[in-house]
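Good morning N.,

You mentioned wanting to compare the apo and holo forms, so I went ahead and generated the holo version with pyridoxal-5'-phosphate. This is what I fed in:
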Amino acid sequence: MVAERYHEIQARVAAACGRSGRKTSDVTLIAVSKTKPVDMLKEAYDAGARDFGENKVQEILEKYPQLPADIRWHMIGHLQTNKVRQVVGKACLIHSVDSVKLAREIEKESAKQNIVTPVLLEINVAREESKFGFFLEETQDALTEIAALPHVGVQGLMTIAPFVEDAEENRQIFRKLHQFFIDMQHKNVDNVNMNVLSMGMTGDFEVAIEEGATMVRVGTGIFGERQKRESF
Ligand SMILES: *Cc1c(COP(=O)(O)O)cnc(C)c1O
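and this is what came out, ligand included:
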């Protein structure tokens, strides 16, 4: 069941790439496995998934020793500063850097471990009160501050678009963030790579790809409904 769904989502990713003149290899499909049991993750792994997304540090810590070592774990949920120590060195990419304070904490821990931790800045494009992330107009200043941290490697931007019935309603949000992403690429900030644009979930990943996403985070579409609609 998981394998079929995974392949179906892969095919939809490829079709969206085709429609928008992009290469399939330019878009990474992240299987968002939060709340799902390890045996379902194994099914996805056997179907070819190597990128998994979790929103709780605790869940990454529980799952990763039970699964193959070549899995790339993406931290996609709000990260509290007191959990940073546990996730640095385990997550391949932290998508959810939503404050300079958090980036400083990641810096401290990464320096201790003598590594550079790849991160994305989370942007609250739609200015939803219920969501974390920088507002667009704060992002450039935050980026400048975070770029000065030698053990934090900014790779790009992430957003969680509003929950909508019709994915088309989010097209402008994705377009706006993509435009900002391109603007930041042109700024060529030292110690910043602007290569990753993480946007699009089960309900809207095709529109996100059409508007320039390089990573999409799909949970329900691969693993089925979760028990409750958790907050971000
Ligand atoms: C849960 C989650 C997703 C996946 O959501 P689906 O609608 O189930 O695809 C994507 N991104 C983040 C940050 C999430 O927390």
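Residues 139 and 158 are 12 Å apart (CA to CA).

Happy to go through it together on a call whenever suits you.

Best,
F.
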